[in-house]
Write a structure and sequence with these properties.
Blueprint (H helix, E strand, L loop, with lengths): L6 E4 L1 E4 L2 E10 L15 H28 L3 H13 L7 H10 L3 H17 L3 H25 L10 E5 L4 H6 L5 E6 L7 H9 L3 E3 L14 E4 L4 E4 L3 H23 L14 E6 L4 H7 L5 E5 L13 H14 L4 E5 L27 H6 L1 H14 L4 E6 L5 H20 L8 E6 L2 H5 L1 H5 L4 E4 L1 H9 L17 H16 L4 E3 L10 H6 L4 E5 L3 H9 L3 H13 L3 H13 L11
Parallel strand pairs: 3-4, 4-5, 5-6, 9-10, 9-16, 10-11, 11-12, 12-13, 13-14, 14-15, 15-16
Antiparallel strand pairs: 1-8, 2-6, 3-7, 7-8
Bound molecules: phosphoenolpyruvate and magnesium ion.
Magnesium ion (MG) binds next to helix 16.
């Protein structure tokens, strides 16, 4: 493939938005050479990093030389000795340093270039020099190995306008990637609900996954466009494409800026029906962003994020501090803390990797907590203690039977009793039940009698209702939240909650999709809980809707027979309310 021609790759859109920037390659294969620009002020640091790697490689070879001498392997001694001499060569010292200064590239790229250039020279000469080049290659692998072990820490200090390319990203890497300099993320692996995806969405970083790097080398490309709405990644865009995307980018920015204006306005339909609009958060710092969006409540705190990527589970005292800080940050606004949702794709610290054949149908969430009572009890004690500092609700994930909810409430009562014995004061805590499994949706009337509110988790409800793995890209065309069965389940849950006089919210990804807003309101949903950055777009959608029109739309949707028909209906309605280029997912 010609490196300078425009190449369009199609992946799965994970986080919406458009980004234009320079590729920063983290890892595409074991032998990949990362290639990126270094900010001027970090050049000397980069040279020092190279010198250290070179020194480490020298130490390795000296150690090997000593070993070879001890074992009396003359041939090795002579080869290693000549390698040590080669390492003093200005090619590996002065020239590489000069190249880092001149090109302002990272040490690996500069080093690789110098080696590749000398390969051309050596190969045009006789066998003696070819042999010398083999030795040089050997040294270079060693130096690169040492460089690589220190290279990954640099995600926090990337040059401006970087677009990260990586096989996959862990949530800590995503968190490490500096928000000010990273314009977008592109990975080969990682689903919509991966931790990296959730963090990217929380930060509003455009992200496309499922991009195959098999036939491309992003290091060869100077410029990349990432369209997080369509899942397109365009390498080396033509001037025409670039112009088109720059225009789209500015339109989108203006649209988002206009949306931000609605932050100060109420979340109510234009005929005055008030809608609860709260946030889904994973990390405490998101609360600050939330306040800047107009001080909303938190409808879902995914508490398992306090230990994902950690070696061990925080104990009760440590958890208490985390929850208390979070609750205090809420400044009186309410927060729903969901107890740990582990299992499925989320591993518990120190727990062996699941050997279940179907972990999503296995010991996940409430099933895990009821089995590991001590862990559950400890978490509930920590939440209850934090409840003294604000307005806290507790919510149980993945309930599929009434007995699970009753048992969970018993553990909560046990936690209260144990705290009372310890003389700890607690606040009033409401109890919520997540509706994520079809069985729970069908017995919503029974569950509603046992709790203070219901929250519909459509991410899982869709996966379990349609028997489609939510993380399996190959099946993404079957993962359809507009499937009539899903719409009917939501309607039935809402009906039962309303009938029993308890609030019901929707907190899955569909709540953040403005195309669904009128439908959900029309079905009788009172509250939507969405990732912080979607609050403006959803509030805008609420304000564009009248409750009468929403009810009518829901009626029409319920009369349709296929997911496609319902999706088309929602798309058509939504298109009427936004400028063309800003349409949610075109
Ligand atoms: C859901 O399933 O819709 C939900 C909100 O929970 P999670 O995405 O954390 O599984
Ligand atoms: Mg869920």
């Amino acid at each position: 493939m010609k490196s300078n021609s425009e190449t369009i790759l199609k992946g799965i859109p994970i986080c919406r938005g458009i980004a234009i920037g320079k590729p920063y390659v983290v890892s595409l294969s074991d032998f990949h050479i990362p290639d990126f620009l270094i900010p001027e002020e970090r050049i000397e640091e980069e040279i020092a990093r190279y010198q250290l790697a070179l020194q480490k490689a020298r130490n390795d070879i000296s150690d090997l030389l000593k070993q070879a001498a001890k074992e009396d392997i003359a041939e090795s001694v002579s080869l290693l000795d000549s390698q040590l001499h080669m390492m003093q060569d200005p090619l590996l010292t002065v020239e590489v340093e000069n190249e880092i200064r001149k090109s302002q590239k990272n040490a690996e790229a500069a080093f690789h270039l110098i080696i590749a250039n000398s390969q051309k020279k050596f190969e045009s000469l006789d066998e003696f020099f070819k042999e010398r080049f083999r030795e040089l290659k050997d040294i270079s692998h060693r130096v690169l190995g040492h460089l690589r072990s220190s290279a990954r820490t640099s995600l926090a200090t990337l040059p401006a306008d970087s677009i990260i390319f990586s096989r996959e990203l862990s949530s800590s890497e995503t968190a490490e990637a500096n928000i000010a300099s990273v314009n977008a993320l592109v990975t080969e692996f990682g689903g919509l609900t991966s931790h990296a995806a959730i963090l990217a969405r929380a930060r509003g970083t455009p992200y496309v996954s499922n991009i195959s790097f098999a036939h491309i080398d992003p290091t060869k490309h100077q410029l990349v466009i990432v369209d997080g709405r369509t899942g397109e990644v365009i390498l080396n865009p033509s001037p025409k494409t670039l112009e088109k995307y720059e225009k789209k980018y500015h339109q989108l920015q203006t649209h988002l800026k206009n949306l931000a204006q609605v932050s100060r306005l109420k979340a109510e339909t234009y005929d005055g029906y008030a809608v609860g609009l709260s946030a889904n958060i994973e990390i405490a710092s998101e609360v600050d962003t939330l306040h800047s969006h107009g001080g909303h409540n938190v409808g879902l705190f995914r508490s398992e994020y306090i230990f994902l990527d950690k070696e061990k589970l925080p104990n009760e005292e440590e958890q208490f501090k985390i929850y208390r800080e979070l609750v205090e940050k809420m400044k009186g606004h309410s927060i729903v803390i969901r107890t740990f949702d582990v299992g499925g794709d989320k591993r518990f610290p120190n727990q062996p990797v699941s050997n279940e054949v179907n972990p999503f149908l296995g010991c996940r969430a409430i099933r895990f907590l009821l089995k590991e009572r001590e862990i559950f009890l400890e978490q509930l004690c920590a939440i209850l203690r934090a409840s003294k500092y604000g307005d806290v609700s507790v919510m149980f994930p993945m309930i599929s039977t009434l007995s699970e909810l009753i048992e969970a409430k018993q553990v909560l009562a046990e936690a209260k009793k144990s705290l009372a014995k310890r003389g700890e004061k607690i606040g009033t805590v409401r109890i919520g039940c997540m509706i994520e499994v079809p069985s729970a949706a069908i017995i919503a009337d029974l569950l509603a009698k046992e709790c203070d509110f219901l929250s519909i988790g459509t991410n899982d409800l869709v996966q379990y209702a349609l028997a489609v793995d939510r993380g399996n890209h190959a099946l993404s065309s079957l993962y359809t939240p507009t499937h009539p069965s899903v719409i009917r389940l939501i309607r039935s849950v809402v009906h039962e909650a309303n009938h029993h006089g308890i609030p019901v919210s929707v907190c899955g990804e569909v709540a953040a999709d403005p195309r669904f807003t009128p439908l959900l309101l029309g079905l009788g949903v009172h509250e939507l809980s969405v990732a912080t950055r979607y609050i403006p777009i959803v509030k805008h959608a609420i304000r564009q809707t009248s409750i009468v029109a929403a009810s009518r739309l829901a009626e029409v949707a319920l009369s349709l027979s296929t997911a496609l028909e319902i999706q088309t209906l929602l798309d058509t309605e939504y298109k009427k309310t936004v400028p063309d280029d800003c349409f949610y997912n075109c």
